Amino acid sequence: MFDKIFHQNKFSDSELLLQQIWDLSVDGMRLTNEDGLIVMVNPAYCKMVNKSYEELLQKPFQNVYHPSCREEVLNTYKQDIGLNRTKTHFECERTLWNGIKAWFEFSNSFIVLPESGKLTLSIIKEITKRKQAEVDLLKSEEKYRMLFNNAHDAIFVFQLSEGKSYGDFIEVNDVACKRLGYSKEEFLKLSPSALIPPKHIERYNHIMEKLPEVKHVIYEMVHLAKDRRLINVEISSHLFEFNEKPTILSIARDITERKISEDKLKKTSRRLRNLASHLQSIREEERTIIAREIHDELGQVLTALKIQILLLEKKLREDQQPLKDKVKEVTAVIDSTIESVQRIASKLRPVILDELGLISAIDWQAQDFEKSTGIKCEFNSNTDDIPLEKESSTAVFRILQEALTNVARHAEATSVSINVRKLPDVLSITIIDDGKGITDQQVNDAKSLGILGMKERALLIGGNVTIERRYESGTLVSLEMPLKKN
Asked: How far apart are CA 437 and CA 414, in angstroms?
């Protein structure tokens, strides 16, 4: 039907442009009547469902799906037609006739053509691979313009003039006019750069410069309406030739609501991080207080007890050797308890971190690690002092402790090296072991709370932790954080 019309009528450039857009669109387009028969489809749809144009034309649209779901799809379609309603935008997973499962994004609308009655226009994106494409339709000036203007997204077409500068728009749809507040006549006198706020124009120009090479690009941008409103959009731009000129088709989807949700999520994440930082500070303060009380109070009591027992020992007679031996045993237990108290206090909050600074604390931790695990630990630093705030020093030290704990528990290593490099603006710390090496699954496992804790601590001080398997053997843990911020 449509081919016959095409041969009988001489189309204007605008009509030929719309026809070319229909044929070049990477989105599937389908026109169905009230009975669900396919009136027209584009090549992209044929490719999407793996059927030829002849196999689809005047056939029930549900035939492209698996027999198990055809009845359900058709009943839903007829119910919507009967109630004069349509799902303007939705996503679903379908099994095609050949058994292949895929996700599709539908944008539907009703149109009424004098010759064909009420038809349903479906613009379909195969979003299994998240491909977004262009929407334009061709047949006759009246019919294709109706399809063009009933698309759910704003559509713009413009050509690049000599020197690859922007020409004026040569086609826009009604959605673009309504969204941005321009009449069709006003739009066709504008250049695309008129819709871009000055602060975004450099990025927009950079994207357009890449288009001749990549042919198709999807990006986020901000549109400037006639009344100066700013509208967040996701644009899919496609480059093709029309009348021997490079022509760009851009489909802009309003993502204002999505941006609002993203901003809310960012604010929530920021609040949670601030809360986590506050809780970490409280926890460190409590550990400091407990460590001090254990060291001072309990340590003093044990020392006094040892002195009293030693004084008691001096009062024993020579013939009371069994009691003297017992006193020595008790004294040894007290000495051991004092060492345990000191060790526990150091684990809670190393005094050396507060008194001598981060480098000395790391050096002490390396020696203590080697002593307690038997794993050789080498420490290298290009500086003796790193002036950090207390919170940052604590975070760096705890990250180092967690990395060494992971080496002791999981790496099966024989040696580990700690390297500290102080650069003008950055502090870099690496912990490298010669063990069996961490796997990608372990790095990305949501249950790896130790790794998550290290990364979260780094984020709270403006830094970043990366963990990767070394090519030779073992694991590399790297922490980088800015020094200027501190």
From this structure: 12
